[in-house]
Design goal:
alpha/beta, Aldehyde Dehydrogenase, Chain A, domain 1, Aldehyde Dehydrogenase, Chain A, domain 2, seven-stranded parallel beta sheet, four-stranded parallel beta sheet, 16 strands, globular
Chain lengths: ~425, ~425
């Protein structure tokens, strides 16, 4: 069998599984999830040796120690993944929700019912915990998954997927509900992305290169998790202490994530007061500052660099911050809508009418007033879990959790009505 | 300028227009719509001569008289298009709706707000009224549009788009809110479909070939309006009179549309009673019947043909119906989920538990119990207007109207909260 034929066969099996999954009750799905968590912990004697193969290969291939660490599993990390599954079991089931219900003048009753999407393809890189996290969220929402992980974690991924599927089956999981593509050549991404007869959705989780490739190839909907080039705008009417605190938090609390601050935008009327205080705090935390002319002049040039044009479009994911002074709120909105990535942007101001204008006019998934951009997150929103932060505008925007892994259908009940009547 | 450069320039202008459109009030948008309707009627001296050029070309190129008729405009048809615009003005504005609002334990307030999508590309064939219908619905939902119509209607489309844009501008429509690609070569479809830096969504309206092409090329979300291979299943516990009436309505009331019946599925226990009565009514209305072995035997073979395998996947859009007898409800569900197009399917039965199973297990956008599939329609659902029937599962499924032309964003209001706290 060619790789393409193998993947097509997985697609057909996944579709069959998805039809069975869609009629499981919440209780049935939750028992399956608990059995999967149990099985994952019980399978540590399979998973950890498999993981050792990946670690050995990674070290041989000269991966950085940070990358090797992201690959590494141990009993504690496995337990954390299993706890994540139990957490998903405890979340409310989105499937079966009546989203709307109404009657038409001719007497037909229309119900909009939340249902699973069907079959979801997930393409991801390195970290093996994604195998479980993604499959489990999709499953809770009634979907079958076909996973395609990176080559670095292939042994771990295979062992995890096998433990989840077999543990789940012992509690009634339909066969082939969670399938991992056992090969990691690039061809398999293409076949998966073209298989729109079976796949309802594809979610690439990883760097821009991976997403870009999936976007070019995919025939089915893609939900993209692109860069977060996030901004804090410090308005002339900001509380300076609050502005410093939010800037420091958004930049330094966890710099390597998509909702961390990348560009600080400052109103010219507050720049003289705000910039020295903010820079002092940022210097203390080792943040490299890349400044436009005005902020450079105000800072006195100490420990800062001039920004280049490319800095306004940079997602550093590191302790680096670009800084720009603008004339007014309009200038801030223009800068953010032009250079941002429509992810998460914040205004700090005590003036409610200015904040309202910012909230309305910034075209981003989440717009903040007087809070850190780090709250752009499914957990912080109270969703209990998240599959990512969508930078798309269709279907799911911003923090994406169980509800965003569902579709709907209309049920129309009548008593013999015809159109010709 | 190359064609690609021209289209990129249109994209940039549309993005600018969409930012302005998103902050128009409902009243402003409605005044603009009324001015557009007025302008369309006032511009008949531009539009009708332009339409004559298209008609002349169509006749010269040997288009069928049905196709020529679909192209033709006159004062009455223009008035109907203008009335359609006034109708859209009278519909509720989906933009600005608070979809959800909650507070987190740390005191941040989260609001999910309905907003426009942004820039929508619409690629369509022949009928010039689509230029207005599509642009106007998108506009009411606060979106800018780039339209690419077929070559057959290019003169009419240009004149209509110009009348809409200029009429709208007199009432405050931002420049370039409605743009028509003035050329109809195939290259322009490709450039449009690849322009994901400006286009948030692309909607192909037309035949399967057009949709297929857009799906292969598009980098942004596509909402597809594929075939409707719709079914009526007559259960053993059906009211026979109702089943005949629904079958006849779904097949013959308007056979050329996507929600018309294409395959009749009959429970074996009712086939002897139902088939002769149904076939008699269908024969009267000139319906050609393509039957499986069992239905052929019951019909006695009079005026019917044997079905071929391809008939189960055919969207005839004509007075042709394929007929199949199944053993039971399970057989009916299997047939429909395998051969259908997940569009609109119906069960006729007096048994509520059977209908519930059918409603749950049929994986289609709209599933009917004891009503004609012809009700799968935005007007019939009470949406006031529709841009089409989506056969996708993401973002919009089934009848698609103003609400489905929107996205959302989250507004998060705080008092200085940071993640590190």
């Amino acid at each position: 069998m060619t790789i393409k034929e193998q993947i097509l066969e997985m697609g057909a099996s996944a579709l069959k599984a998805s039809r069975q999954l869609s009629s499981l009750s919440t209780e049935e799905k939750n028992s399956i999830l608990l059995a999967m968590a149990e099985s994952l912990e019980q399978s540590s004697s399979d998973i950890l040796p498999a993981n050792k193969l990946d670690i050995a290969a990674a070290e041989k291939n000269g991966l950085t120690s940070a990358m090797v660490d992201r690959l590494r599993l141990d009993e504690k990390r496995l337990a954390a993944i299993a706890d994540g599954i139990r957490q998903v079991a405890s979340l409310p089931d989105p499937v079966g929700e009546v989203m709307a219900k109404w009657q038409r003048p001719n007497g037909i009753d229309i119900t909009q019912l939340r249902v699973p999407i069907g079959v979801i393809g997930i393409i991801f890189e390195s970290r093996p915990n994604v195998t479980s996290d993604a499959a489990v969220l999709c499953l809770k929402a009634g979907n079958a998954t076909i996973l395609r992980g990176g080559s670095e974690a292939i042994h771990s991924n295979r062992a995890i997927a096998a433990a989840l599927q077999s543990g789940g089956e012992s509690a009634g999981l339909p066969p082939n509900s969670i399938q991992l593509i056992p090969i990691t050549d690039r061809e398999s991404v293409q076949h998966l992305a073209e298989m729109d007869q079976y796949l309802d959705l594809i979610i690439p989780r990883g760097g821009a290169g991976l997403i870009e490739k999936v976007v070019s190839l995919a025939r089915m909907p893609v939900i993209k998790h692109y860069d977060g080039i996030c901004h804090v705008f410090v308005d002339s009417e900001a509380d300076i202490e609050m502005a410093v605190s939010i800037t420091v938090d958004a930049k330094t609390q966890k710099p390597g994530v998509c909702n961390a601050l990348e560009t600080l935008v400052v109103h010219q009327d507050i720049a003289q007061d705000f910039i020295p205080r903010a820079f002092a705090e940022l210097h203390k935390r080792g943040v490299e500052l890349r400044c436009d002319e005005q902020s450079l002049a105000i800072s006195g040039g100490d420990g800062v660099k001039p920004a280049e044009e490319s800095d306004w479009r940079a997602e550093y994911l590191d302790l680096i911050l670009s800084v720009r002074v603008v004339n007014d709120l309009t200038g801030a909105i223009s800068h953010i809508n032009e250079f941002g990535s429509q992810h998460s942007d914040c205004i700090v101001t005590q003036n409610p009418s200015r904040s309202e204008r910012f909230l309305q006019e910034i075209d981003s998934a989440t717009v903040f007033w007087n809070t850190s951009t780090r709250f752009s997150d499914g957990e912080e929103f109270g969703f209990g879990a998240e599959i990512g932060i969508s930078t798309d505008k269709l279907h799911a925007r911003g923090p994406m959790a169980l509800r965003e892994l569902t579709s709907y259908k209309y049920l129309v009940r009548g008593t013999g009505q015809t159109k010709a009547q």
